[in-house]
Amino acid sequence: MAKTGPKGPSLPMSNDDFAKLVAMIRIQCTRDEICDVLGMSDDTLNRRLRERGEPNFAALQRKHQGEGKASMRRMQWKAAEAGNVTMLIWLGKQMLGQSDKQEISGINSNPSPVFLMLPPNGRD
Predict the structure, then answer these.
(1) Does some domain include residue 51?
(2) Domain contains 12
(3) CA distances, 79 to each of 12, 48, 70, 71, 108 (Å)
(4) pLDDT in tens, 11-63
(5) Does residue 118 sit within a domain?
(6) At 5, is the secondary structure helix, strand, or coil?
(7) In this structure, what are the phi and psi dihedrals at residue 119, rounded to the nearest 5 degrees?
(8) Does an H or E element contain 60, and which?
(9) In the Cβ-directed half-sphere of 23, how many Cα atoms lie within 13 Å?
(10) How confident is the prediction for the chain on average, in pLDDT?
(11) Considering only CA atoms, which of 73, 71, 46, 74 is closest in space to residue 61?
(12) What is the pLDDT of residues 62-84, one digit of tens each?
C-alpha cells in the first residue's frame, strides 16, 4: 500500500522516470531542472532514489555525469576526425595548448610624451 503524505498517496519512482532522470544527468541538467521536469521537490527526489536503493541524488549524479562528458568528447573527436575545421582548431587549443598569434607591428609616428607627477618628499 502506498504511503499517504500531506499531498496524497506517494508513489514510487517509475522506471521511465528513473531513465529520464539518468538521461538528464548525462546531459548535465541541474538538480532544480530535474526536479521541475519530474514534478517533485529535492527532498522527494532523494527519498524516491533511496527507495530504489540509490544513496542520494549527488551519488547518482557523480555516477552518470561522467558518461555524458565522455559521450560529448567522443562526438567532438568524431567531428574532428571527419574534418570539421572548427572542432580541429578548438581541440588543438584545448588539448595541445595551441593558440592564435596576435602580431602588432608598425611604428607610432606620433609618440605621446609621458609625464610623471611625484609628490614632494621634503628634500631638495
Answers:
(1) yes
(2) yes
(3) 41, 39, 14, 12, 44
(4) 889 999 999 999 999 999 999 999 999 999 999 999 999 999 999 999 999 99
(5) no
(6) strand
(7) -70, 150
(8) helix 57-81
(9) 8
(10) 88
(11) 46
(12) 999 999 999 999 999 999 999 99
